[in-house]
Design brief:
It is built from 14 helices and twelve strands. With 428 residues, it is an alpha/beta fold. The model has no long low-confidence stretch (mean pLDDT 96). It binds pyridoxal-5'-phosphate.
Length: 428
């Protein structure tokens, strides 16, 4: 049974307690950054095997004899494409290996669509009066920044726990020809940790769209990043699109940024046959080759899906205590007040903290003043504007467990203070 709100007396007592604690935190002079999802040092230190996989300049041949020290094989070593093929469930022939950043490939894909169009485009997107994209929220800020940069209008759709609200997605895509796509992080979504259910994946593949060149930008950044050693099973989006008769719909990205070195790994993009040809046509002009020595280093160590999973299980077990420390601290300090809820993701890099009564901006600012830097409030929404001012993204992967406990406690203190100051009910 839900018991009533705190008494007025208890509320003012609690507020004084929290203010005192907050001032104490400020006096500690801590300095912590929980704003971005960086792999922890202890994980990066285990990557010596990758650094040391190619040490002899005369040992740089790929399996088919390609000399990785030289130009050539612009779309990536066969074994690198086969590795990603297992990770993202796309035929190796439809995969292109990029440089060190999948975000870069996403930017380029949108850029090409704007200047030249995609398979099925009546004209380049830049020649249309308006282009719109569906954005499940809260989501990845850098995705929104790319869309904003190209002047693409963003339509937000909420998450349901199984991915975006597909009733809304289907309706928007079916009605409006200027809606050219949706941007998705299907596994351990960046912010909420949602894993798209098989039904969501199939509906995304099958849905009718008014735009003939509608694409699903499917960012598989966290496809093997499980915290509990249990793989997130999703059907092959690529296969589902082919089966549904929409072979040009999927544009799938992945990278090893959180398997090897952040911004220093290898990455890929996958397309249907026609979009693949269009991409290659542009890329043939854009570069001569990517860094195949880095590809060689990675494939010699990461080898195949099974080897990757073993590695990621080791990394996951290093990250899990960090996630647990944050979740336990939230439960301990906020469990008895019904003012916030938080995700308990099974993988990925983030915990999503939601305030029932808003105040996110103020809380993030207070934490910053006390030495804990968080992702700016609103970052999970297009244009940095969270209409309910209620979401805060926690990135627990980099700091040490003890620091995380302190930072999470500070966040709880600020949340209680702001709830009290805003006269929100604190149920017990
Ligand atoms: C969803 C998502 N996509 C892409 C990236 C960046 O990937 P990359 O380092 O391959 O550019 C990140 C990094 O945090 C991410 O969260």
């Amino acid at each position: 049974m839900k018991i009533t709100d705190l008494s007025t007396e208890r509320r003012s007592e609690l507020l004084s307690e929290m203010r005192e604690k907050y001032e104490m935190f400020r006096s500690y002079g801590i300095s912590l950054d929980m704003s971005r999802g960086n792999p922890p040092r202890e994980q990066l230190s285990l990557n010596g095997d990758i650094l040391n996989a190619v040490t002899d300049p005369d040992d740089c041949l790929s399996e088919d004899g390609t000399d990785c020290r030289n130009y050539g094989v612009p779309y990536g070593l066969r074994e690198a494409r086969e590795l990603f093929s297992q990770l993202i469930q796309v035929p190796a022939d439809n995969i292109i290996i990029g440089g060190t950043s999948s975000l870069n490939l996403l930017f380029d894909t949108v850029s090409r669509a704007v200047t030249h169009g995609l398979a099925g485009s009546p004209r380049p997107w830049g020649k249309e009066e308006k282009i719109k994209f569906i954005c499940p929220v809260p989501g990845y800020d850098r995705h929104y920044k790319i869309l904003e940069y190209f002047g693409i209008e963003m339509i937000t759709v909420p998450f349901t726990g199984d991915g975006p609200d597909m009733d809304q997605v289907e309706k928007i895509a079916a009605e409006d020809p200027s809606v050219k796509g949706i941007i998705c992080v299907p596994v351990y979504s960046n912010y909420t940790g949602d894993v798209y259910s098989p039904e969501t994946v199939v509906r995304l593949a099958r849905m009718e769209t008014k735009a003939a060149d509608f694409v699903v930008m499917y960012d598989d950044a966290y496809v093997v990043h499980d915290l509990y050693g249990v793989p997130a099973e999703t059907p092959s989006f690529y296969d589902e699109c082919v089966k549904a008769g929409h072979p040009e719909r999927p544009v799938i990205f992945a990278s090893t940024s959180k398997m090897s070195f952040a911004g220093g790994g290898i990455c890929c993009v996958a397309f249907g046959d026609k979009n693949l040809e269009l991409a290659k046509k542009a890329m043939a002009i854009q570069f001569i080759t990517h860094d195949k020595i880095n590809q060689l280093r990675h494939v010699r160590v990461l080898k195949d899906l099974e080897t990757v999973r073993e590695r990621m299980n080791r990394f996951g077990s290093m990250l899990l205590p960090k996630f647990e420390a944050v979740e336990e601290t939230f439960e301990r300090f906020l469990g008895s007040y019904d003012i916030a809820e938080w995700s308990k993701p099974k993988g990925g890099y983030f915990i999503c903290f939601r305030l029932r009564y808003g105040g996110a901006r103020r809380i993030v600012e207070m934490c910053t003043q006390a030495g804990v830097k968080l992702t700016p409030a609103g970052a999970g929404f297009p244009y940095g504007k969270d209409p309910s001012d209620s979401y805060i993204r926690i990135a627990p992967t980099f700091p040490a467990v003890d620091d995380l406990k302190k930072a999470a406690e500070l966040l709880c203190i600020c949340s209680i203070m702001v709830a009290l100051e805003n006269n929100a009910p604190l149920e017990v």
